Every structure is written in C-alpha cells, then in structure tokens.
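Homework help thread (please don't just give me the answer)

Our assignment gives two proteins as sequence + structure token strings and asks us to describe the second one. The first is just a warm-up. Here they are:
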Amino acid sequence: TAMAAPMTDAHRRFLQVLMSHGIMEGSEARKLHRRCCEIHKVYYAHDKLDDFVSTINSHLQPLFMQIRKGLSEGDGRAHYALVNLAETEITKMASDYTENELELFRKTMDLIISSEDGFASSTDILNLADQLKTKKMKKKEAEQVLKVFVEDKWLSERNGEYTLHTRCIIEMEQYILSNYQDMARKCYICHSLAIQSQVCDSCGIRMHLPCVRKCFRAQTDPRCPHCNDCWSCDIP
C-alpha cells in the first residue's frame, strides 16, 4: 500500500481542536482547516477538507481512532466527530458514568429508538429513574444526569423532549444497528440510521426530516417513494 501522506503541524492542530470539541459542524471544520493551514504555512485548498481529514485518519488507524463525517438529523448539515473504534461506545461511556447513570442512558435510548418520531419526553424518562435495576434514582438526580448527557453531547433536548445527539449517532450507529435489530431503521433515502424521522403509514419506510424535505421539494402531492401512497406526515 502507498505510504500515508505525512502529518503536518496543521493536521496535528486540527486534530487537537477536534479532540477538545468531540464534534464540529462542517462550516466550523472548514474554518478550522483553513486556520490550521495558514498558521503553519501548509498548502491550503478550500475543497480538500476531506483529503486533509483522511490523512489524519491514516495516522489514527493504529490507535483505533477515526474522524467520521455524519449528518445532523435535524437540518441535514455535515458534522465531523472523533470516534474511538477500539471499544464499543457503551464501554467508553462506562469510564465516565456510574452504572445506574448508564442504565438510565440505555433505557432512554430504548425509548428514543422505539418511538415513532425519535424523541422521548422527560416525563417518560424520569418515570424510568425509580425502576432502575442497578440503583434507583430520585427524579431530581435523574434530571441532573440528563443535563450531563446533554452537555456531553450524547443527548440533545428541545422543549422537554430528548433525542440522540448527532455525535452519539455518528459514534453509535453500528452499535445501535446491531443491538436494536428489530427496531433500528435506516433512512430510505440516505441509508444511514434514522432516529428523528417520519414513517410512511402504508409501508412503514422511514425518512430523515432533511431527506423528506429534499425528496418532496418540488411535489404538490407528496407520495411515498417506496409504495407511492400519499405521504401522511406534514412536510417539515
């Protein structure tokens, strides 16, 4: 195999900043790419971010780490996240959280993945807190733990409804697809895991909201791309 392109100080700086953030929106990553190249006087091409990242990835390979690109389910924007491939993500979380916090996270994930639209209400989640097998949690305590999951970018919250953060989906896609085989669905359009999504009433296919928007952009009478029945959900 060809030797990987060498890592420069620009690559190292990019990696350090990404490590401190855990995840970055595409436009931020593009700005960072440019800044790193300028600071270290390394050749910069605005359309070469993915090549720049793959150079870093070839050097991360022996460390079982990888920068992965994924899309936000809310608005379809690209994000870059640093992923640890050596451990399954739940084991990685195990070093940061107690057993009952992890159990609460798993149960929250169950609710989100089995829901129709990819959200779980705080009420439903907090009701699980006193049913934990490891060690029951008081509501106040559980609220605090949920806050931490949001700060650590495992969950995101909107008006008391929780869903999986983009970082969590990028990191855990494989884990979720293999551990939730009967429930986890892929988006009919982009074929990646679909949590926040709409479902066809007739045939049951799922589509991400940005994919729904793209798919029906020019249609006055939106029909399911799979079964051709009327699309019953409101187009976002």
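The one we have to describe:
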Amino acid sequence: MSPEEWTYLVVLLISIPIGFLFKKAGPGLKRWGAAAVGLGLTLFTCGPHTLHSLVTILGTWALIQAQPCSCHALALAWTFSYLLFFRALSLLGLPTPTPFTNAVQLLLTLKLVSLASEVQDLHLAQRKEMASGFSKGPSLGLLPDVPSLMETLSYSYCYVGIMTGPFFRYRTYLDWLGG
C-alpha cells in the first residue's frame, strides 16, 4: 500500500470509534467536537493546503451574508471558480495540493453550494411571509435562521464526510446535532 493509502486507512480507523463517542453526546459537544476532529484530520492530511478550504468557506459565508436572496448562484460561481483555480495551482507554479486536499475541496464545494441554497430558500420564504402579512411559523425543512460564521465553520469541518462523503445538507446536520 502507498503512504496515501495508509494515511487514508488511519483516518477511517480513527473516525469509526469517534462516531460512537459522539452518538450519545449533546449538541454542543457534537458540533464543536466533530468540527475539531474534522479540522484536525484536515490539518493532518492536507497540512498548509488546509488554507484552501478556509478560503472557500469564508468566501461563501461572506456571499451568504451579503446577498442572501441570490447567494446560491453566487456561491456556485465562487466555489467552482475557486475549484478551477485550485486545480490549476501547479500550472501557476504553486505547490500542488495533496490528493486529500482535493477530496476535501470537492466535498466542501457540494456542502457550501447546498448551504447557500438552503439559506436562499429561507430568505425567499421569509419574504413571502412578510408579503402575505401573517406568520405561519417555521416551515418544514427550512433552516431556523442563517448560520453564523462559527456555525458555517463547524458544519464545513464536521469530520463526518470530510473526505469520503456522505454529503449531507445543513438541515440534516442540524437534525443530527439535536437528535
């Protein structure tokens, strides 16, 4: 087996028992513990290239905050543009990221575009509610509110699916935290 395959095996073997620890944990420990484990695994496997994931997250969060009514299209353009830049690093004479960094970037792109879509759906539902003049309460499947920077970071770096999938929406993540 190659060194990358050994590293991947170690990551998988670490992730399995951690899942059992978080199964009974409360929402706070799940949120911050899962994010810390995910960030730790990302730093372990990607090293300084972890910065690419952070830039992608911060850019998407800024777009969500600035333009919630059209953030889905903006996040899609931003994350795929950054992914194109990321894939062209070696052509630009910059250090080539590890295969692990590539996996993290691909899954992060899915997560962040999905998050922007969910925020946009929330914003559109709120606008319809204001236009109709009455509040009908929280709609099923919608986010309770727009995630903060820390909530966005914790979702993005959650160790579940950080390199291998499965991909899950932010609403599913919130259900996992509360369940």
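TA reply:
I won't write it for you, but here's a hint about the kind of observation we're looking for: The mean pLDDT is 91.
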